[in-house]
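Practice set, problem 2.
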Amino acid sequence: MNLTESLLLWYSQNKRPLPWRETLDPYKIWLSEVILQQTRVSQGMDYYHRFLAAFPDVRSLAAADEQEVLKLWQGLGYYSRARNMHHAAKEVVEKHNGIFPQTAEGLKKLKGIGDYTAAAIASICFDESTAVLDGNVARVISRLYAVETAVDTNKGRELLTDLAVQLLGNHHPGTFNQATMELGALVCTPKSPSCDTCPLAFSCEAFKRNTVTDFPVKTPKKAATVRHLNYLVISFIQNQEEFILMRKRTGNDIWKNLYDFPCIETEAAADIEQLLEKCNERGLFGGFPFTVKQVSEEYIHQLSHRRLLARFIRIAVEGTPEGDENITAVALHHIARLPLPRLIDLYLANVLLEEKFR
């Protein structure tokens, strides 16, 4: 029995009963692949079911409001995935009459669909003979052949893809691709791999050399950029109801089109008095008297290449500040309806939704 046959036999006996494995619908396969990028299956499962309940097909997703999509995505992070997915759904409807392209090359023309996702959809749904290369597959292949080239370089990705194509052979490509990914997820794991139960151990070069944990080779990580965020949680009372100034993030920075509070970013931990002066200069208080109610402890929020150090300064204004084009007043009990970054949602859960400002 060769490598590919051993892998497929193992998969038939050990694969997890996941809902997206029970369909060949490209919309559902695509949805699962986008959600599971940078996300564990255990976490992504609920999101997959919620998205299907809200948007059962590509036309319903295309017709949705972006804010609704982002709110449903809240907590998964990497929000560009949700924005790109929404954009791609519109492309499928508007340019392809609601029918997904049936080749990897055609799929890659859609917003946000790269080599991996295109290969997964094309092989699983349309039986195209193309190999996938995600983190799990890269780990399996690099250990199997003891690949010394870093997997996160173009040269490394090309080499690993060529090796995966060689393994693919004439077997059903969708099944092979899923089997390789499953082996990486369940057996050939990043830490403490179960080599004693691996169906490919008999031919694994890293296992023979006792160097399994040395692979895959990766380029050294750069130190995370530190950003100091000083959030102004500005509240006021209007018609006996409490409002908070919320900012819609624009541009190409993190959390585009999500909502947070007005923020002043500084190079280091800032002096509160200086921050308040900057707020007055920006007109955030509308010229009305204000009181600083509370300054939070520092919240640490780690992103892939950024380390956010955030403080929340609660300020009560005795008037009705107007905000600007990106800052708007939202009733306190409506804030939870907005798409929010995890950092803001955590602060709300810890403080604002448990007690009133005043």
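Problem 2, part (b): a different protein.
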Amino acid sequence: MKTILASGAISLIVTLFGTRFAIALLVKQGYGQFIRDDGPTSHHTKRGTPTMGGAVILAAIALGYFGAHLVVWTVPSVSGMLAVGLTVSLGLVGFADDWIKVSKHRSLGLTSRVKLAAQGAVALAFGILCFQFPDARGMTPGSQAISFLRDLPWLTMPIWLAVLWIIFLISAWSNAVNLTDGLDGLATGACAMVFVAYALVNIWQNNQNCAVASTASVQCYEVRSPLDMAVFCVAVAAGCFGFLWWNASPAKIFMGDTGSLALGGAIAAVSILTRTEIMAGIMGGLFVIITCSVLLQVGYFKLTKGKRLFKMAPLQHHFELKGWAEITIVIRFWLVCGICVATAVGLFYGEWVIGQ
């Protein structure tokens, strides 16, 4: 528990104070956000707002996680290091995209093919590593089974297919959070809620872990290092909370793709390493809804030869064009996220209670 508290404290301090320094540095260098002309006109006032603030979140996560282990003098787990590695790696992909945008003063960074290829390469490396490093019981960080609230044994896959499943999850989640990051504080606040909930899930998994002899006879959880995953989740949640101080409307800084791709990857990593892949779709239901709005918009546009289902996609911009105030959309979407998080946690706990 000391490691968890230290992780959260370090991460929160880094983003609360580090983001202020980043704003000053980015403003001095003139690295501001480029706003597309085809978006909501209200966004034109945001032109020039510093971006790439996700770099501070990445620093907070890494310093929070590893710093906490240094404070209490414990060794980081393989699962925790894999989660941090995936998060930072996807953040670097996002940073390359943001850097091209701000340095060339345009809205297009990496091409979609290059970005997807980079995400895929990072996901492939993570997927392969997930099936290495077996513990004393022969359990690897990742599982070959698709999971809901725990592994579903009847949905066990060969390793090559499990790696492809992991690549899909990472690509889907990183792009889902990226699509959600369109209004001040929306993605940051939603991610904070998701990771606080996941920290609670991980603590519960640790208390009911099959590796503990006293719980081996009940409906225990076959997961690797759940308590250390809680350390990671708290570092991410605290980093998001600290960044939200500066990112809330009116935002003084944006996280950019540096932050959104990284946070999406973090959700994917936690869902994979804690065997809750389908539950993550409920927990992060807001991200799923917003992603589906884009898919529906594109599909409807092609099927009807030019007609639109929404005024604009992703969904948050549809409500902007309907006249909703930005802060109203953000708060209401946060409420939707809170409902999704509560539903997922309720299902997780309810399944354990029913199984007793």
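Answer key, part (b): The chain is about 65% helix and 5% strand. The radius of gyration is 20 Å.
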